[in-house]
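Batch manifest, entry 17 of 40.
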Amino acid sequence: MLSMTPAELDNLTRQMAIPYRLQSQYLRHLTRGRDLVDIGCGVGMFLNEARRDWNAYGLEESLHGREFAQKRLGLCVAETLNELPVQRFDIVRLSHVIEHIPEPRDFLSWVFEILNPGGVLAIITPNREPLVYWTWNLMMRLKSARPSLKTAIYPDMHVLGFSPCALADMVIRAGLEPLSVSTISMGNSMYYPLFYDGLLAIKPLAQIQRRTLVKYYLPLVLANLGNRFGLGEWIIGYFRKPRGPAGS
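Output type: structure tokens
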């Protein structure tokens, strides 16, 4: 995303405005507080909508991402937590971040500390083996004794992969209480609309090549079917920090 041109980023910002607004409004129902930090906020697309409802701050290591968010969108985005106006938050958002963290338990301990009691951690991360990959891997195992398996862990990008159960277990061990953990796929209006990032072009069915149907549309159908079984493309988890020692 950070390699996109300013024009491409502007277009994607407009495209994701409604989903990000819906996510921000959903978070409003989870806490009475209004201080939110988006860790790993990139160029600030979510924050651009969240500031309608929140005292919204961002953390981003990338200089390019920070400068776009600050100069083009006018957002408050820092490089380190110490640069932020507040040190305790009602919402901590991790969108496509946790899979890049080599030591996620230590990282979640830090997140626990910056959350206010009763505050909410929102996590979005790729599902390690969605139904698309599960189906592919089953076919490969039937075909070969040494199959080439597919996974949502991408070399040099994601150092870890999670299933819904594994993610929930790790966050619970960090001291947070699960509110909901589910999976979604492209076509979910609140997270990833059908034509997100221009990956699918709108064309008459007669003009769509068979290869395109197999390569893009069939996996899309499978991914959405997988949501019923926790096998969608992305995991969406919401977790609350207990208000007191007993979680009261």
